[in-house]
Amino acid sequence: MLKTLAARIGIYRKEAILTPILTMLEAAMEMLMPVMMAKIIDEGIDAGNIQNVYRYGGMMIVMAALALAFGVLAGRLAAKASTGFAANLRADMFRNIQTFSFANIDRYSTAGLVTRLTTDVTNLQNAFQMMTRMCIRAPMTMIFAIIMAVSVSPKLSLVFLVAMVALLVILLPVVIPATRNFRRVFKQYDALNASVQENVAGIRVVKAFVREKFENEKFRKAAGDVYRAFVGAETRMSFVNPVMMLAVFGCNMALSWFGANMIVGGELTTGELSQLFSYVMNILMSLMMLGMVAIMLTMSAAAGQRVTEVLNEKSNLVSPPKALTDVPDGSIDFNNVSFSYATGSGKPVLQNIDLHIRSGETIGIMGGTGSAKSSLVNLVPRLYDVTEGSVMVGGRDVRSYDLDALREEVSVVLQKNVLFSGTVLENLRWGNPDATEEECVEACRLACADEFIRQMPEGYQSHIERGGANVSGGQKQRLCIARALLKKPKVLILDDSTSAVDTATDAKIRQAFREYLPETTKLIIAQRIASVQDADRILMLDNGRVLAFGTHEELLAASPVYQEIYENQTRGSDDFDEVGGEG
Q1: pTM of the model
Q2: In what order do the strands lie in the sheet with 350-357?
Q3: Most buried of 267, 329, 446, 460 (most Cβ within 10 A)?
């Protein structure tokens, strides 16, 4: 973990090295000041020599100024190094997340990744700054103070050593178990973020069904879990400060008693006792500071493990060595394919699928909810890998292609349409960053989106809100179809992506596909038979198995389920699930 995190310091390595050096110099100046104070008392005030008071007082002022300068510079460099470290962590995590397959995303959850990118990295940033400052300052101050104290009076220095050993014996059993508590805290953070994310994303549904009270209760429970987890962790750590203060007072009392006796016996001067009081405070304050560091490092250790997991996570979908970069055509073959989700129950969602689709064909795909329609088409651009068998595009196994090259030739309009904040043109150019405005307009015309775009205040320069919040469901679908068309792919997949448009617009879009993409293989998932009846062939799925496969006429003649769906829909019912079996 430490090696992985340390590698992210990057260009801020110089600041990370200079900060401890300056901190050590600051601590050295502060440790010399009690020596000057002792000399002022013994060689100045007690000796009645005002010149020594001025001389050593001036030296103290210089040391104080140097300590201040070293401290300010160290603080500035520590801030730069820690914020740079956090920026590098977030950038590397985000970059690695972009390589994740859907299976990797499923493992961590979106809310979990957000927590790691925000809360966990912030904890590591604070810990890193503390390590370059407090973790250096406290031990160095303590070491310098012990050396100076021993040089003044080895006998009285035993008081410090006894106190330090006692503190370690008491505090170690408290700090170590707290690490497990803080790990549980961050898991509760994931649940809290998931609750917020789900609520904000579905706020329209929440208000439509008047479920604000239910959502408030759900959030209150998640927040309460975080509260209880933090209280449990912090309760353990609450022993640190009282124990530290007890040690400070105990040492002062012991020094006062033994020191007074030694002064009376002539073994110690008043200035040396004053010097020892300064050192005992420095030693014990350093220990207190280390206690605070222990709390922060305990929290950051759990955060560091979670961040390291994401940084070290490797996508389970990678391009093979000497990967193919040319997809010959849009032919698709499913050769005895079975598939199950790694994070699911382990039960296959697709079983023994054997299909062969010619390049340029239009294939309609129908099935009840949960019949694995989306799972089937997700295997074509290799969003998941098959469990058994093989999927071939252009006569070659999809696992032999470079992932980017394959996905450039397979354009997908997913079931959940996503638009990003930016102009209409910027969203369209996700399909082809080099597309001209004329090409974007043509794609929108084919997707029946041009008309409503021109009615927007600024046309193609109109702003789209995050998630497409300022356009309707049907408009969002048509924009996503236009975006896919700009890729001019060899395979086009429409995952129920015309469900929010009327039947006339749906027909126009399908007509545009036939004319504009005659050589592109088109896989169209739909619930309406009208959307697929003019396809070359129609695939019917049920519980992850092929129920029927043929033309509209062949299925009407041979498939009772298809016949029943057709009759229901021609009478006005569009619900496949009423007749299509269990999903």
Answers
A1: 0.66
A2: 350-357, 332-339, 388-393, 396-397
A3: 446
